[in-house]
């Protein structure tokens, strides 16, 4: 009987010890939290030396994040003209992704934002800074669709369409009523060089594209238009079309 009582006392004593330990831990945590807030450094006035240093650090961090995101992930753009009608309309807002630039190659049908080869980019440090951040940039960027891939033989025939390697390209997205009334009505045959692309707007009668300024070098590509986020009623993914050239 005494053994049973001893066991019960031991159990009760163990519980009491555990409860005391829990209370001590809780008190220690509360004291640490209270001490943290008591000892927390107050923010210096904005226009003090310390405040200006902190502000400069924050601005540098934000700038670095902007550069990293814009160059390696994505950036927003808006459509300034009707050269991509009916796919993209004036003032549409889109996201241009950059990740595919580093893990894959562009494909026929991709809608690409780029600097055309006839556009002389500002070579100064300021010019490079504006392109990196998207702030105060003056370099003119275009948006068109990839029609010709490296090695393709291209012909453009008014009233008929685009021939890729002597095969008529099926283009359901093209602006209806296209007549190819422009200075580049008849073009080709020409062969797309390595690491270059033949670009055309979906609105063929109103598009300054490869028919006028030639092939687009790969290094001039900014990114691929992947998503339209404005206007609300036309929000959606910009998908790559299927062509009738799968066996080529």
| CATH architecture annotation of one domain | Ribbon
Low-pLDDT runs: 1-5, 7-18
**What oligomeric state best describes the polypeptide chains here?**
single chain
The CATH class of one domain is Mainly Beta
Per CATH, the superfamily of one domain is: Umud Fragment, subunit A
CATH topology of one domain: Umud Fragment, subunit A
The total strand number stands at 12
Order of helices and strands: HHEEHEHEEEEEEHEEE
Report how far apart the termini are: 94 Å
Mean pLDDT: 83
Query: What is the radius of gyration?
Result: 31 Å
Helicity, in percent?
A: 25-40%
Describe the protein in words.
With 248 residues, the chain is an alpha+beta fold. Among the domains are: 1-39; 62-149 and 192-237, Umud Fragment, subunit A (Ribbon), CATH 2.10.109. It has helices at residues 2-39, 49-72, 100-103, 125-133, 210-213; strands spanning 74-78, 93-97, 111-114, 142-148, 153-157, 161-164, 167-168, 187-191, 196-200, 216-217, 221-230, 236-237. Strands 1, 2, 3, 4, 9, 10, 11 and 12 form an eight-stranded antiparallel beta sheet that branches. Mean pLDDT is 83; it is low at 1-5 and 7-18.
């Amino acid at each position: 009987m005494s053994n049973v009582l001893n066991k019960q006392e031991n159990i009760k004593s163990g519980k009491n010890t555990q409860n005391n330990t829990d209370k001590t831990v809780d008190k220690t945590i509360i004291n640490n939290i209270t001490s943290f807030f008591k000892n927390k450094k107050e923010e210096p006035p904005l226009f003090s030396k310390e405040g200006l240093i902190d502000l400069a650090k924050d601005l540098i961090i934000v700038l670095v994040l902007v550069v990293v995101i814009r160059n390696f992930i994505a950036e927003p753009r808006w459509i300034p003209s009707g050269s991509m009608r009916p796919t993209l309309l004036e003032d549409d807002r889109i996201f241009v992704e950059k990740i595919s630039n580093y893990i894959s190659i562009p494909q026929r049908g991709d809608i690409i934002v780029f600097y055309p080869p006839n556009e002389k980019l500002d070579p100064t440090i300021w010019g490079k800074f504006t392109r990196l951040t998207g702030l105060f940039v003056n370099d003119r960027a275009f948006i068109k669709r990839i029609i010709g891939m490296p090695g393709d033989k291209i012909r453009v025939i008014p009233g008929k369409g685009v021939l890729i390697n002597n095969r008529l390209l099926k283009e359901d997205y093209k602006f209806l009523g296209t007549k190819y009334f422009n200075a580049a009505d008849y073009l080709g045959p020409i062969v797309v060089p390595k690491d270059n692309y033949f670009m055309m707007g979906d609105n063929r009668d109103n598009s300054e594209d490869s028919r006028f300024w030639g092939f687009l070098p790969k290094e001039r590509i900014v990114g691929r238009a992947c998503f339209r986020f404005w206007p609300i009623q036309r929000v959606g993914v910009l998908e790559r079309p299927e062509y009738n050239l799968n066996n080529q």
